[in-house]
Amino acid sequence: MTALALAPALEPDRRRCHTSREEYFAWVRATFADAPASIKSRRYFYNRFLKHWPDLEDWFAEPLLVRLDLHGRDPHEPGKRIGPSHEAGPYLA
After folding, report:
1. Of 19, 21, 73, 91, which residue is most buried, by most CB within 10 angstroms?
2. How far apart are CA 11 and CA 93, in angstroms?
3. What is the SS3 assignment for 87?
4. Which residues 6+ apart lie within 8 Å of 24 measured at CB?
5. pTM score, whole prediction
6. How far does the chain reach from its first CA to its final CA, in angstroms?
7. Is 83 left (phi over 0), alpha (psi -120 to 50) or beta?
8. Confidence class for position 90, pLDDT limits 50, 70, 90
9. What 3-state DSSP class applies to 78?
């Protein structure tokens, strides 16, 4: 075993948090100025995700299948995934 393997995991210096609504919406308007439908849908999914996951640390603490909106169903089931995390993918990325 190496010394690095024995070292304690470092805690992040600060908590992960959502960007402010004003900052995100300004970025969306500037980036998608020629696509009003994209602006509207990104704002909607941002709001929906924040309503479902107001604390981003809670989202990160969930198991991956919950974060991917795949819990409670067969992961190999065909069809579109739905849920606040999946639909907010562009915001999360």
Report:
1. 91
2. 22
3. helix
4. 46, 91
5. 0.71
6. 35
7. left
8. confident
9. coil
User: Cα separation of 38 and 36, whole Å?
Assistant: 5
In tens, the pLDDT along 39-81 reads 999 999 999 999 999 999 999 998 888 888 777 777 677 766 6
* Contact between 25 and 71 (Cβ < 8 Å): no
Number of alpha carbons in the 13 Å side-chain half-sphere of residue 69: 14
Give the separation between CA 88 and CA 45, rounded to whole angstroms. Answer: 5
DSSP assignments along 1-47, one per residue: --HHHHSPPPPPSS---PPPHHHHHHHHHHHTTT-HHHHHHHHHHHH
Q: How many CA atoms lie within 13 A of 23 on its CB side?
A: 4
pLDDT of 92 reads: 80
Closest CA to 53 of 16, 22, 25: 16
What letter would DSSP give residue 68? T
